Amino acid sequence: MVRIDPGKFNVFFTLQTLSVDDDGAGGTNEPVWSDVAHFWGELSQSGSGRGIRDTQFVFDYSYQVKTHYMSELEQLTERARLVTNHGWVLYIDNIENIDTKNFFAVIKCSKEK
What we know:
The chain is mostly beta strands. About 5% of the residues lie in helices and about 55% in strands. It has 1 helix and 9 strands, in the order ββββββαβββ. The chain has one helix at about 70-75; strands at about 1-5, 10-20, 30-45, 50-55, 55, 60-65, 80-85, 90-100, 105-110.
């Protein structure tokens, strides 16, 4: 287990939403994850005492997020996920403290739903 000090561990995220690929040719519609926005986050105080092992998250992290794509954050559903620059896939559990003026929010997420 690697201990991480809150606020010291920066993670870059890609926000992805789930859509349906309709090729218009009568074929099977397949779900497709599409990139929506890029933003960065760091461990919030509620992540204190948690850490990473290799490239896997210990479950249940909160992230402080600063982004210029706050409109996407406000419209997120359970069909959205975050992909970090380390290749971790995080599913969004809750978004709170959205501050559209300062482009800030807290995202609570876990590695699996």
